[in-house]
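It is worth pausing here to work through a concrete case rather than discussing structure prediction in the abstract. The textbook approach is simple: state the sequence, then state the predicted structure, then interpret. We follow exactly that order.
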Amino acid sequence: MIWPFRHLGLKLLSLGLAVLLWMAVAGEEIVERGLRVPLELQQLPSSVELSGDMPTGVDVRVRGGSGALSRVGPGDVVAVLDLRGARPGRRLFPLTPDQVRAPFGVEIVQVMPSAVAMTFEASATRTVPVLPSVDGRPAPGFVVGTLTADPATVDVVGPESAVKRATEVLTEPVLIAGAKDRVRETVTIGVLDPALRVKNAKTAVVTVQMEPAPAERVLHNRPVHLRNVGGNLVAQASPATVNVTLRGSRDGLARIAGDEVSAYVDVAGLGAGQYTLDVHVDVEQDAGVTNIDPTSVQVHIARGQP
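Step two, the predicted structure:
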């Protein structure tokens, strides 16, 4: 036999807590509030695509205790629209309070709008080429050669009208700044039209071949400048001039004036004596130096007059 007064203290404590909770809820002020809540679309058939702007939210009126409403956070109240009956064309879907999910203690009073209009199109797929893109400029004297992507083509999916307009997908730019050799990188691919999506591949391996620029220009008898000659020293180069061969695009080479190409030898830290030193060239970024003739000169350094 169960003794009814067993654990009487715990039972009285539980009863007291229940009474206090009831009093708190019963005494809580009932309020009504307007909220902007997300609209969740479910059960869209795979044979159709949503066309045009997609509704992202609706307005609702909620009622409940002030405490319960104060605890409602983003995502706690969600309107759900079942699209399983969607077919191509413009359709109108009713939206009632019963289609709004809300926490316990929160009542949905009204949904605005009471119906949502959407346009659907038949879903279509099309195979389009992957168009690689690059960012930056190769090293002086080099140009971008062949660009390839693996995979070379991908399938795009979306509304039929948007798929018909699709001609290519793009890659994230491959950085080629200062490159002289082949550049290979795995990059993201995508479409600019937000109505479309790539069906399978999300990345592609892009290979960029660098090639010597197609034109050359020879600048004859460029004077050799001696840089950083120490105090009370004089220096002389032999020969005093060199020939400089530049490579680049025809337009880039044509823009370079002869006095913009400077041949020099750096004698920093050298004292009196005879030296064989390499010749260097400063040139604009539109071209690269492919040859200096001769590549080195004799430099005589002597003490100057006091």
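Step three, interpretation. The domain at 215-303 is CATH 2.170.120.30 (RNA Polymerase Alpha Subunit; Chain A, domain 2). Residues 172 and 272 are 56 Å apart (CA to CA).
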